[in-house]
């Protein structure tokens, strides 16, 4: 399953694409940030973001799109820009008949770290672990986009049409092992690191 995660923002829009297997193993496909200058007219900024998102969809052909759900903020200008970019992302997906998942920040944090109040550093660290990256993707918008994509893939039952069936019977799911998807991914990443370290010691 290939998922495009979008962390909507008018100045910086994080976009990340991951492939996730039936055992919940995630692999990085693409990550970047679409940026627009604050002094540019709004219509032109939205056009740049729209073109960037559509180009990624056409190039990488994701099976679904995950977008952060817009929530109220004290800064009305910021939330308006976020909502406008979210609309663009939804439109781009709808034009290509791609299913869309909307996830709140707390849902993403809980899926990735097991803790709904985790900070950005914890999320970024876990994203790097899950994707077996040498460093945390930067800026934070990029890591957040990947976290969205991973969260969506883990919440959607791969290879089945029912969320309930996926939670109960997908190999490697929490129901089968007693661990959440995040905990399983962390354990798999740690085991992979341990195996590589052992191989390096033997090679010396």
UniProtKB/TrEMBL annotation:
Protein name: Crossover junction endodeoxyribonuclease RuvC
EC number: 3.1.21.10
Cited InterPro entries: RNaseH-like_sf (IPR012337), RNaseH_sf (IPR036397), X-over_junc_endoDNase_Mg_BS (IPR020563), X-over_junc_endoDNase_RuvC (IPR002176)
One GO CC annotation: cytoplasm
Cofactor(s) the record lists: Mg(2+)
One Pfam entry name: RuvC
Family: Belongs to the RuvC family.
Gene Ontology terms, MF aspect: crossover junction DNA endonuclease activity; DNA binding; magnesium ion binding
Subunit and partners: Homodimer which binds Holliday junction (HJ) DNA. The HJ becomes 2-fold symmetrical on binding to RuvC with unstacked arms; it has a different conformation from HJ DNA in complex with RuvA. In the full resolvosome a probable DNA-RuvA(4)-RuvB(12)-RuvC(2) complex forms which resolves the HJ.
Compartment list: Cytoplasm
Residue numbers binding Mg(2+) 1: 7, 141
Gene, per the UniProt record: ruvC
GO biological process, one term: DNA recombination
Source organism per UniProt: Herbiconiux oxytropis
Predominant subcellular localization, coarse grouping: cytoplasm
Cofactor binding note of this UniProt entry: Binds 2 Mg(2+) ion per subunit.
Catalysed reaction equations from the record: Endonucleolytic cleavage at a junction such as a reciprocal single-stranded crossover between two homologous DNA duplexes (Holliday junction)
Role played: The RuvA-RuvB-RuvC complex processes Holliday junction (HJ) DNA during genetic recombination and DNA repair. Endonuclease that resolves HJ intermediates. Cleaves cruciform DNA by making single-stranded nicks across the HJ at symmetrical positions within the homologous arms, yielding a 5'-phosphate and a 3'-hydroxyl group; requires a central core of homology in the junction. The consensus cleavage sequence is 5'-(A/T)TT(C/G)-3'. Cleavage occurs on the 3'-side of the TT dinucleotide at the point of strand exchange.
Keyword Magnesium recorded: yes
Keywords: Cytoplasm, DNA damage, DNA recombination, DNA repair, DNA-binding, Endonuclease, Hydrolase, Magnesium, Metal-binding, Nuclease
Annotated positions binding Mg(2+) 2: 68
């Amino acid at each position: 399953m290939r998922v495009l995660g979008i962390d909507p923002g008018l100045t910086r829009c994080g976009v990340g694409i991951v492939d996730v297997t039936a055992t919940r193993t995630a692999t990085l496909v693409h990550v970047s940030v679409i940026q627009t200058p604050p002094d540019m007219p709004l219509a032109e900024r939205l056009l740049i973001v729209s073109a960037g998102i559509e180009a990624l969809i056409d190039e990488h052909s994701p099976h679904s799109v995950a977008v952060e759900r817009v929530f109220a903020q004290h800064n009305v200008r910021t939330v308006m820009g976020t909502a406008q970019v979210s609309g663009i992302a939804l439109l781009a997906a709808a034009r290509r008949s791609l299913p869309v998942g909307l996830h709140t920040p707390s849902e993403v944090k809980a899926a990735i770290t097991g803790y709904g109040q985790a900070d950005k550093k914890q999320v970024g660290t876990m994203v790097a672990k899950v994707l077996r990256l040498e460093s945390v993707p930067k800026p934070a918008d990029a890591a957040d986009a990947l976290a969205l994509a991973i969260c969506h893939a883990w919440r959607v039952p791969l290879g089945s049409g029912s969320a309930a069936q996926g939670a109960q019977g997908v190999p490697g799911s929490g129901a089968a092992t007693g661990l959440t998807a995040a905990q399983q991914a962390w354990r798999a990443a740690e085991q992979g690191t341990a195996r590589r370290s052992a191989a390096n010691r033997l090679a010396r």
